[in-house]
């Protein structure tokens, strides 16, 4: 199938598919005229890439285990669990930081509102 057909079937832009190819995640066959030709398995590959991107992984991280998960169950790919755990720890750190920022903003808003009220009363 051509790149435009793969894009249509997967909902991924042609530009993204070309990027996946550059990253080594997707390997088309080049025809004599230079056109990319994708096998029917490319749809499953792109859907798998989308899943991992939605988990917050980078294409570089995905490249480290994609071949394994396409051939085996995820549980049998030793690279996956440490990556998930690391990503979860990063998210927990970000959530903590965002919670602190939220708290700081709430305090500033309350302080400004109090000052505004006092100036109206005074």
TrEMBL record:
What InterPro entries does the annotation carry? Answer: DNA-bd_dom_put_sf, MerR-type_HTH_dom, MerR_fam
Q: Which residues form a coiled coil?
A: 88-122
HTH merR-type domain location, by residue? 1-68
Q: Which UniProt keywords apply?
A: Coiled coil, DNA-binding, Transcription, Transcription regulation
- Tell me the GO molecular function terms: DNA binding; DNA-binding transcription factor activity
Q: What is this protein called?
A: MerR family transcriptional regulator
Q: Which PROSITE patterns does the record associate with it?
A: HTH_MERR_1, HTH_MERR_2
Domain of life assignment: Bacteria
């Amino acid at each position: 199938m051509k790149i435009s057909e793969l894009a249509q079937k997967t909902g991924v832009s042609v530009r993204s598919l070309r990027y996946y190819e550059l990253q080594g995640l997707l390997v088309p066959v080049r025809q004599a005229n230079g056109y990319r030709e994708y096998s029917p398995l490319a749809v499953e590959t792109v859907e798998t890439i989308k899943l991992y991107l939605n988990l917050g992984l980078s294409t570089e991280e995905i490249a480290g285990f994609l071949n394994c998960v396409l051939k085996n169950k995820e549980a049998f790919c030793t690279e996956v669990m440490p990556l998930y755990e690391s990503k979860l720890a990063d998210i927990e750190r970000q959530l903590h930081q965002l919670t602190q920022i939220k708290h700081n903003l709430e305090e500033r808003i309350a302080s400004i509102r109090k000052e505004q009220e006092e100036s109206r009363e005074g």
